[in-house]
Structures are given as structure tokens and as C-alpha cells.
Design brief:
Strand content: 15-25%
Distance between the termini: 132 Å
Radius of gyration: 51 Å
Order of helices and strands: EEEEHEHHEEHEHHHHHEEEEHHHH
InterPro entries: PSP1-like, PSP1_C
Number of strands: 12
Number of helices: 13
Structural class: alpha+beta
Pfam family, one: PSP1
Organism: Roseivirga thermotolerans
Strand order of the largest sheet: 2-1-4-3-5
Protein name: PSP1 C-terminal domain-containing protein
Helix content: 25-40%
Length: about 425
């Protein structure tokens, strides 16, 4: 697919110098994918109306009465009021019929025709005409400032025959530009048409990158602009910060409406409530997770939030309507706290331990003392006399009598005499 932003004399894509993806066709502005191109449509004759794209994504329908063999992206010369213009084929075939039905365009004689395919000479002339657009834009803005008009000039589009120019502007109120048209006609020697556009259309013609990091929807695929209100942001639990909710056009972002229907369906199961009555006090709603169906409540000035399922919230609402007040957000009646339960369980375990210990002592007293082999006193045989231990010096005998002192060796003094050492 060739680029609609211009083709050079050599037949190569000239581009629009905005560093965009011109190879994809029209710098990605309102591109169309023909999903019926590889299918055999059961029709006798091909639909003879073609959709043609002009500068910055502007599109119109034209009849192909001459039955030209056209290709998507090919430059053609079409009939316009007061002359002719050059555009590029964006769609043809049965898709055009569906598109016309979508836009409520009737097939009648008001639809103009395609003259012929653009020649090399037409492309050269159109390229020279487009070079006038930027100087004319700057000069017109200066004239607007001189006349002190409350309007913003956005873009200028010259016809391929260089006889007419369309000036696109935006303004908050009505502007009396009759004097301006006279000055512009005398300045550029052409017929002047002033066309007011909205701020969203202005952003779509200029293009840009959104906060999501992608190209603006209005400059790539979005052609119908629906009204957006702050209620869409409230339903989706978004902060009402104008700097975050506004797009490059200064209006609310169009993407706020993309998921609004899904949120509205999910909100049907969530009750509308601001506060709940419990024995601990009034719990106020702080936050709602729509898709997880969880609502956070807090008591008074507490910093902690309590997550409650929506089913439980409905139960509390039903109790409040009956005049009943539950004990807390999670329970209807008071229950033993986990701390008290653990303390009581410890006491019960201690009681059981001491009961078992006392039972063992009582059983031991009933059985009597045990011997080394584990037999009771009733099972013992006659006591054998024990062997007497040998008396030791400095100790007391088993019967309580003192032990006799140990006799010293007679030769002890003789062996230890110094005379013995000399003799040896």
C-alpha cells in the first residue's frame, strides 16, 4: 500500500516529514484493512463506489463510472466543487457498501465521480501546491493576530488545481471572519473556505503520542467522537484529576468510554451504600474493588480498613433495615476472640497435665516401692546378708565404729635415712 501523504516524481514515497510509518499507508492515519480482499464475494457486479482519502485522513465517497481498474493506495483525480482534487484510494468493493451504511450515506446522484488515474504531471503539480501550505499557514496566523480574532488556525489544505484552499480552525465562540476572508483572498489569489472543527478533530489532524505511549486514537482509527463525562471516571473509581483525565485536545479522554459498559455491568451486583451500623459503631465506605467484589470499610477515625465481600454487605444492609445491628462487620454475634481462646486452651492443657501427674503418684503409692528388678515389696524373697566392706583409714565402719589406724612399715625410716644414701 502506498502512502497517501505524497509520492515523488520518481515514483517513490515522499512522506510527510513527521518521521511516521509512511510505509504502512497514510502515516497510520485512519488506515483500512480489506479483510474481504482474499475472499470470493457472491455478487454479479463489483460495487462501483470507492472511498478516497485526502490530507490528514479526510475521506469521501466517489463513483467509479469509468470502471477504472483501481488498486488500494493508488492516486486518482476526483471531481470536487469548483475544480478537481487529487486523493488516494483507501477502500473499494463491498466494504464501501458497509461503510456507507454505517455512516448513513445514500447512493444517489449527489455522489461525485472519479475522473481518471493521476499521471506523473498531476503528481508534480500537486507536490508544488503542497509546498504553499506551510508559508500560508504562518502568514494567516499573523493576519489573525493583527485582526485580534479569537480563533486558532490548525491546518490549510490546497486543492490540486491550486484554485481553492480550505482553512481549518477551532474557536470557543462564533467568529466574524468576513474581513479575514477578503484579506486572505487578496493575499493568496485563491478562493477561501473557512471550516470550523472541534478540539478533538484538531488533535486528530495534528496527531501525537498519548499518555499510554501509543499514537492518538483520533488520528489512527477513531472517527466518531462521543460525549465523555466525569461520571465515566467515577464509575471506574478513577481520581478526578483534570491533568490525568484530559487528553492532548484539552477535553476528557475518549478512552474513558471504552470499558464503561463492562464497569456498568459489574456494578449491578454491588450495593449502593455509604455506611453500615454495627455494635462497634458506624463503618463508612472507603473503597470498592468492582471486579473482585470487595468493599473496604473503616470505623470512625481509624486508619485500618476492613475488606468485606459484597455478599456480606448485603446481609448487613438487610439486618439494618430490620432494625438489627450485627456485632461486627464479619460476625452477627459476639464470639470468643482468638487471644482468649488460646489462653483458655493453655489452661486446659495444664490442668490435664497435673491431673495425669497426680494420678500417677496415687497409683505408685498404692503399688508400693519398686526394687531394682521392678518387683514390689510383696514379691521380694528373704533378704541375704551383705558382705562387710573392708575398713579404710580415716573412715567410719558400716556399724558406726571407727576404723583402726593403719600400721606403718618398719623399714620406712631405715630406707629414708640419709646414711643409706651414702652407703649406696
Amino acid at each position: 500500500m502506498s502512502c497517501s501523504c505524497g509520492t515523488s516524481v520518481a515514483g517513490k514515497t515522499a512522506g510527510c516529514n513527521n518521521n511516521g510509518g509512511c510505509a504502512t499507508g497514510g502515516c497510520n492515519k485512519l488506515n483500512v484493512f480489506d479483510w474481504l480482499s482474499n475472499m470470493d464475494v457472491p455478487v454479479q457486479e463489483k460495487f462501483n463506489i470507492v472511498e478516497v482519502r485526502f490530507k490528514n485522513g479526510r475521506k469521501e465517497f466517489f463513483k467509479n463510472e469509468n470502471h477504472l481498474d483501481l488498486v488500494t493506495g493508488e492516486a486518482v483525480i476526483v471531481d470536487v466543487p469548483g475544480g478537481h482534487h487529487l486523493g488516494h484510494v483507501s477502500m473499494q468493493g463491498e466494504l464501501v457498501r458497509l461503510q456507507m451504511k454505517k455512516k448513513s450515506v445514500e447512493v444517489n446522484d449527489e455522489i461525485r465521480q472519479i475522473y481518471r488515474k493521476a499521471t506523473l504531471k498531476d503528481l508534480e503539480k500537486f507536490e508544488q501546491v503542497r509546498k504553499r501550505e506551510m508559508p500560508a499557514l504562518y502568514r494567516t496566523r499573523n493576519i489573525i493576530l493583527e485582526q485580534k480574532l479569537e480563533m486558532k488556525l490548525t491546518d490549510i489544505e490546497f486543492q490540486a488545481d491550486n484554485t481553492k484552499a480550505t482553512f481549518y480552525y477551532s474557536a470557543d465562540d462564533r467568529v466574524d471572519f468576513r474581513e479575514l476572508i477578503k484579506v486572505l483572498a487578496a493575499e493568496f489569489k485563491i478562493r477561501v473556505e473557512m471550516r470550523q472543527i472541534s478540539l478533538r478533530q484538531e488533535a486528530g489532524r495534528l496527531g501525537g503520542i498519548g499518555s499510554c505511549g501509543r499514537e492518538l486514537c483520533c488520528s489512527t482509527w477513531l472517527s466518531e467522537f462521543k460525549s465523555v463525562s466525569t461520571a465515566a471516571a467515577r464509575y471506574q473509581n478513577l481520581s478526578l484529576n483534570p491533568s490525568k483525565l484530559s487528553g492532548q485536545c484539552g477535553r476528557l479522554k475518549c478512552c474513558l468510554n471504552y470499558e464503561l459498559d463492562t464497569y456498568m455491568e459489574a456494578l449491578e451486583d454491588i450495593p449502593e451504600v455509604t455506611k453500615l451500623k454495627t455494635s462497634k459503631g458506624e463503618a463508612r465506605l472507603q473503597k470498592t474493588d468492582i471486579f473482585r467484589k470487595i468493599m473496604w470499610f473503616s470505623y470512625g477515625d481509624e486508619n485500618s480498613w476492613h475488606p468485606i465481600p459484597t455478599a456480606r454487605v448485603k446481609e448487613i444492609l438487610a439486618l439494618n433495615q430490620k432494625g438489627e445491628i450485627p456485632e461486627s462487620l464479619t460476625e452477627d454475634k459476639a464470639a470468643v476472640s482468638p487471644v482468649e481462646a488460646t489462653i483458655n486452651s493453655d489452661l486446659e492443657r495444664m490442668d490435664e497435665r497435673f491431673k495425669k501427674k497426680d494420678a500417677r503418684k496415687k497409683a505408685k503409692k498404692r503399688r508400693g516401692p519398686r526394687n531394682d528388678k521392678g518387683k514390689t515389696g510383696a514379691q521380694k524373697g528373704p533378704k541375704k546378708p551383705e558382705a562387710k566392706a573392708a575398713p579404710q583409714s580415716g573412715t567410719v565402719a558400716a556399724k558406726g565404729k571407727p576404723k583402726p589406724p593403719r600400721k606403718k612399715n618398719r623399714n620406712f625410716k631405715k630406707r629414708n635415712r640419709p646414711d643409706n644414701d651414702q652407703k649406696s
